[in-house]
Design goal:
The chain has 194 residues and is of the alpha/beta class. It has six helices and nine strands. It has a five-stranded mixed beta sheet with strand order 4-1-6-5-9, covered by helices on one side. A four-stranded mixed beta sheet has the order 7-2-3-8. A hairpin with a 2-residue loop joins strand 5 (96-108) and strand 6 (111-123). Helix 5 (156-164) packs antiparallel against helix 6. The radius of gyration is 16 Å and the shape is globular. 24% of the residues are buried. The mean pLDDT is 87.
Length: 194
């Protein structure tokens, strides 16, 4: 199969984004999302590093997950995204939460975007950690292939240090809340705007 030209790739990315990010009543690309905070037996959190397709120097760490369909159950969307991005197949009942609801507005692909997200905790086994280590991302969209740079495990201290070194972590509240969530969820869903 021939490799796409830069123009063909850009057209494909723009088409994909238009489908995944419908315009809201204010004309801003806006979607619902479900995200998974993956926690290892060593109490580390699994993060992805991405870059903006329109601006390579704009990079950040974020959790696994993404957009859900208009009629898609959030838990089912979360486990679908988990499978697509990591290869892990888990029963939705393993998800804890939602522990966090986040409304955000940000720049991505040279446009303002809004995303409303539910975050779930998922404690995984040592065997699942090994599955993550050996996974080759075969189910990624064209946008994901272009923007995903790295996957890495972090301790809470390492996440805090990363933000001090200039690479943001999203959600911003994650390093603050993670110690509490590692001890157990208290049943509250935290709501934030970022």
């Amino acid at each position: 199969m021939a490799q796409m030209s830069k123009a063909e790739l850009l057209a494909k990315v723009q088409e994909e984004i238009a489908l995944e990010w419908p315009l809201d009543s204010e004309g801003i690309a806006h979607r619902r999302a479900a995200r998974v905070i993956i926690i290892s037996p060593l109490q580390e959190v699994y993060m992805l590093r991405g870059k903006d397709y329109g601006q390579d120097s704009h990079q950040w760490w974020f959790t696994v997950g993404g957009g859900v369909g208009a009629n898609e159950d959030l838990r089912l969307g979360a486990v679908r995204e988990l499978h697509e991005e990591t290869g892990l197949v888990v029963d939705p009942v393993r998800l804890i939460g939602p522990v966090l609801y986040r409304e955000s507005e940000f720049q991505f692909c040279l446009e303002t975007r809004r995303q409303d997200e539910d975050f779930y905790l998922l404690h995984i086994t040592s065997e699942e950690v090994q599955q993550l280590a050996s996974h080759t991302a075969t189910h990624l969209t064209e946008v994901e292939k272009e923007v995903l740079l790295e996957r890495k495990w972090f301790t809470v201290a390492q996440l805090v240090a990363e933000t001090l070194h200039g690479i943001p972590v999203y959600p911003v509240i994650l390093p603050q809340m993670l110690p509490q969530w590692l001890e157990g969820w208290d049943g509250r869903t935290i709501c934030v705007k970022e």
